[in-house]
Amino acid sequence: MSRIEAGAERRLTGIPVSPGIAIGPMFGALEPPAVVTRSKIQAADSGAEVSRLDAAIVQSRKQLIKLRNRLAVLPEDSQAEIAPLLDAYLQMIGPSRLVRATRKRIAEALVTAETAVVDETEALAATILAAAGDGGQASRRHAEEVREIGRRLVRNLTRTPFRSFAGLPPGAVLLCEGLRPADAALLDPSRLAGVATEEGGSDGHTAVMLRALGVPAVLAVDGLSQAAKPGDLVIVDGAAGTVVINPSAATLTAARRAVTAFAQERQRLGRMRRLVSVTQDGVAIELQANLEIPVELPLIAQSGASGIGLLRSEFMFMNRETLPDETAQYETYRTVIEAMGGDPVTIRVLDWGGEKEIEALQSEGIVPDIADTNPALGLRGIRLLLRKPELFETQLAAILRAAMAGPTRILLPMVTTVSELRAARDIYDRVVRRLRRRGERLPDKLPPLGIMIETPGAALSADALAEVADFFALGTNDLTMYTLAVDRGETEVSELYDPLHPAVLRLVQFTTQAAVRANIPVSVCGEIGGNPQFTALLIGLGLRTFSMNASSVPRVKQAVRALNADDCRALAEAVMAVSDPAVIRQMVMGGA
Ligand code: PEP
Ligand code: MG
């Protein structure tokens, strides 16, 4: 009896990527596959093939610019997610290494333009993935961007039509095999109830964008395209990761109730922005935002964050062939500092290395073309900056000048010894003197110089480092990776990546206590800072400042307001007496 009864309820599961409940009729947007037949060409035809490639580039550019112009109708946070991606695509088909290499491949390997595009994008994606070090997630995304631009070029070269959402009826649930990130720019979240796809993963751009659009979504649902037909009633639960096709009356009633509860929860979180971040017994907890790209600024303003606790400056150096000069960097930092209207901004200087590949550093010969055998343990963060002081000095000069616009702090990545911090401070002092000689205006009180604590070495010498550093920022993402010897982006060992491991918690505690004794500020800016389930433990360990993804601020504030600092201390004491991570997880998350 394997035949499924027509109209019977079917429940499928996938990866929950964007919370919310969608109820609506199924709409399937089909996309014919682009077929590439690998073929060789005569040398005499290579000029014509290069011209075909150039025409496809022009067409792709037009399409992307059109998508970019359409963004204005999307909500601000969706624009913040999608715009940089479209810009990255546009840069890839500008005067880029990818385009040069594809042209060269046509002429040298004597293949058609589409064959050259497929081969070149695959080769580039493979290089990016092979160079991935400590955090494979960003590299996987970057490799997917390269493949995606390749697919667009191929579709234009082979004149295969793109997916169209033109016929999507209001309130429908979109079900399809895969959804490319740029498709998200074509979706109208006010007309679309939800999305479920057969392909995709939780950390891809598509997932990030669906979250930013606020569309309930479940990806990687096995058997989806077989299970539903157009017009079937579908429920997508983007938090539970379920897709129900042809729900029974009881399932439908429960789903309708869940829709109401979700809307009420959203409203409540929205109101959080105006409330103070204080525990029940009056302990103030500072909630700040991490910023990866300046387009996130409006999101930060909406979130109610009281400053930027970590500005990852890598974005300034990525997706470009030359390094940004002092003026370009100054303008960017000044814009961010001004936008924060007097709230502090902590700018972390360039953290190159590991997963963070920066083409301009390679093309200008500043770092080797081939990554270290183990980039996470190589020339990363402060190590590169001390080796290439010109790079460091330019960035420090830009930050120092921008600091005239508001309170600013400077943060050094991957510090492991006191001597690195001393060397960095000497360079900092030198830059200050040089700027003064140049007649630049600098703030009377210069920006404090702090360090990331993100290796066990730094954490265990936190007492010594606290004598030289002006502040600490705990980078628990790397701290967990380096302590447990588990790559933070490697799926094979992901179950071992556990910030609740007692070894990590002891390092967090030791660092926090060292900072408190030395009377210097300490914050946590790794992912655990934005997880409300960890808030009680972190407060209990003595932390009072958290920096996180802007969207997490309301939830963490809600957690803070429900807590009592004394209870948090008792929880931390009990947790620190336990050595089994599973028991700790139970105590902290209550079985979640
Ligand atoms: C960290 O390591 O926890 C951190 C905040 O830095 P990044 O994630 O940029 O390495
Ligand atoms: Mg780090």
CATH architecture verdict of the largest domain: Alpha-Beta Barrel
Number of domains: 4
Number of strands: 16
Q: Mean of the pLDDT scores?
A: 89
User: Helix proportion of residues, in percent?
Assistant: 40-55%
Q: Look at the structure and name the CATH superfamily of the largest domain.
A: Phosphoenolpyruvate-binding domains
Low-confidence parts, pLDDT < 50 over ≥5 residues? Answer: none
Tell me what the structure shows.
With 592 residues, the chain is α/β, with parallel strands linked by helices. The protein has four domains: 10-31 and 167-269, 3-Layer(bba) Sandwich (Glucose Oxidase, domain 1); 43-157, PtsI, HPr-binding domain (Enzyme I, Chain A, domain 2, Orthogonal Bundle), CATH 1.10.274.10; 307-447, Alpha-Beta Barrel (TIM Barrel), CATH 3.20.20; 448-592, TIM Barrel. 46% of the residues lie in helices and 12% in strands. Helix 9 (297-303) links the parallel strand 9 (286-291) and strand 10 (308-312). Helix 10 (326-339) runs parallel beside helix 13. The longest helix has 25 residues, at 46-70. 45% of the residues are buried. The site of phosphoenolpyruvate has 10 residues, from strand 10 and helix 17.
